[in-house]
Amino acid sequence: MTVTLLDAILFALMLVSALLAMVRGFSREILSVISWLVAAVAAFLFYKPLTPYFAEYISSDTVAMAASAAAIFLVTLIIVSYITLRIADFIIDSRIGALDRVLGFVFGAVRGLLLVVVAMLFFNWLAPENQPEWVANAWSKPYLDNFGKQLVAALPENPEQIILEKIQGTSGEPATDTPPAPEEPGSVEGAIEDSSGTEPTQPQ
């Protein structure tokens, strides 16, 4: 294994990502990710109540649903991003600002590595054989493949099916409330007691 163009690309992406994250700060990078996650969760949870309003102007139910989710996502992202930006600026200007930038550098380097790992996964899928020498003989190729296998192993099976089931609401059949079956009376006297509400009289 020798140092090839792939190794240079990996190093360049990690360095650029690390420098950008250092300038922005670790807190801003993390809060930015949180903002996107919150917006995605909000769109997933609240798109159904808003869909009928879009359906009044959009004939396609699928497009109306997508428009509802997109609107909630964008509005939530703008609001949460504004809040997190204020929090990040406060942290950077505080005494721990230097530490925040150092952690941001590390975070950016890891993010750059993850981007190359994902790109290598797609490349191996598209061209499993006859790869260029600068890819196949790269020093970092075995490490990238190993990280990619670990990443795939951490994912659930059939993630696209899970996402479709969540969106379409078909992940489980709705439970039907069936009334419980009436209990069998233990005896004829018990049946008479249940129907009349009085205890049967014992013969003298």
Automatic annotation (TrEMBL):
Keywords, ordered alphabetically: Membrane, Transmembrane, Transmembrane helix
Gene Ontology annotations of biological process type: toxin biosynthetic process
Biased composition (Polar residues): 195-204
Membrane-traversing stretches: 6-23, 30-50, 62-85, 105-127
Major localization class: membrane
InterPro entries the UniProt entry points to: Colicin-V_CvpA, CvpA-like
UniProt topology in membrane: Multi-pass membrane protein
Record carries keyword Transmembrane: yes
Region (Disordered): 166-204
One Pfam entry name: Colicin_V
GO cellular component: membrane
Subcellular location: Membrane
Protein name: Colicin V production protein
Species name: marine sediment metagenome
